[in-house]
Amino acid sequence: MTWLALLSSASIIAIEWRSLRTASRRERTLYTLFVSAALLMAVSFDTHLLTGVHVLAPVDALFRPATEWLYQVL
Amino acid sequence: MTRVQISRSQLVIAMVWCILGTGIVTIPSAVAQFTVRDAWISTMLFVVGGGIVVAVTLLFSRMFPCRTLTSALLEACGPWIGRALGIWFLICLYITNCTVLREAEVFVGVTILPKTPEYVMGAFAMLAVAYAVYLGVEVVMRDAELITLLVMLIAPILFFLSMQHMDIHELRPVLVDGWGPVLRGGIVSDLDYALELMIALQFLMFLKNANTAARDVAVAAVVSTVALTLVTVLTIGVVGPSTHYLSYPVLEAVRNIRVGRFLERLDTLYVIAVVSTVFVKLAVFHYAWCSGLKDVFGLSSHRVTTLAGGLLVWTGATVLFRSAGDVQQFIAYTVPVYFVVTFVAIPLVAVIMMAVKSGLRRRNAVLMRRG
């Protein structure tokens, strides 16, 4: 997955190189953030870095109790 | 520069495929966890969730004609609170996109490509989606129209051929366990899938007349309810009590089709139809996400984040959901209340804040006139 992510990132940057050069700082920051986060996730998947980590745990913690309560009420 | 517009029929078609894309795969099995014989009644409750969406869309389109939800949040709640609510909405859209992509990866992996790594299928899917979104909303909507023709060709054939194996007695007796299991089964269709129709709020600015949006969403909700109910009735009638144990019961119903001794394995056609409609759903949600990012972060175009965002959705789908079980648990036990908060409460907050603001403005104007 890392190699595929690296290839995709390089392709995306090559395709958008011209528009990135004229983009504002905010746009470039967001772009870099997205590509870096994607690469980081791909690497973490291949290296099993996040195997024991449930990334959606905060969302689950917020909404799962309420949903389970709803099931119980019905 | 002319303003990009989408027609009412395009909006209806896109919304219908947003629901049926994954709904037709997931809803029958999700409902069958609670009730099998009365699953069709649970599926019919989809119209209740659709009614909630129509009411919110009506209020929103009257208060904010020609505005997306994210830009309306900034206008109604100011830059700080509006941006915070917008980011919350965008995170929910991102997770939804990841969920849909992961569902599609698992479905294709199980049905037709068991030896291909799931993330490779996801990469190809997101490549097509990102390209369509990059070209703009018109291309996404025209794709939806084109795919409708394809599905309209396949769906009736599969439906009528499956009917020859249907046993209506599998649906009887009705309501023997009472309304409890029926209502519990209806939560997924009502609060997960029906509330996804709220994505229409991100497309209001492309409509010629935003006042018709609520009517269009109502049509999409009714069409989706009828289609889902018919599919559920057919599936239960063909597969029977085994529906409870299957991940893809509709696929089993289609696999039963045999015409003579030579025509079988028509499930390939079903998979083609599902993959095509999932493509529309992913494209609509990805466009909504990218246009939301444009509003919230003040970007020059939705294209800035289309490709990089597509990459992020692709990796996120695999990292957020390790297995098909993770996706099913998330859909059944987290998404219902998460969607109520995000897709119902947040647009209502925008409407209420705007109503309060205009009320105060009117009061100040009256006071100024009185001197």
UniProtKB/TrEMBL annotation, chain A:
Residues spanning the membrane: 30-57
KW Transmembrane (keyword) present: yes
Keyword line: Membrane, Transmembrane, Transmembrane helix
Protein name per its UniProtKB record: Uncharacterized protein
Organism: Alicyclobacillus sacchari
Automatic annotation (TrEMBL), chain B:
Top-rank lineage group of the source organism: Bacteria
An annotated GO BP: spore germination
Chief localization: membrane
Keyword Hydrolase: no
Family matches, as Pfam families: Spore_permease
Transmembrane segments: 12-34, 40-60, 72-96, 116-134, 146-166, 186-207, 219-239, 269-292, 304-324, 330-356
Subcellular location: Membrane
Membrane protein topology class: Multi-pass membrane protein
Any Gene Ontology CC annotation: membrane
Keywords associated with the record: Germination, Membrane, Transmembrane, Transmembrane helix, Transport
NCBIfam families in the record: 2A0309
Family from the record: Belongs to the amino acid-polyamine-organocation (APC) superfamily. Spore germination protein (SGP) (TC 2.A.3.9) family.
Protein name, as recorded: Spore germination protein KB
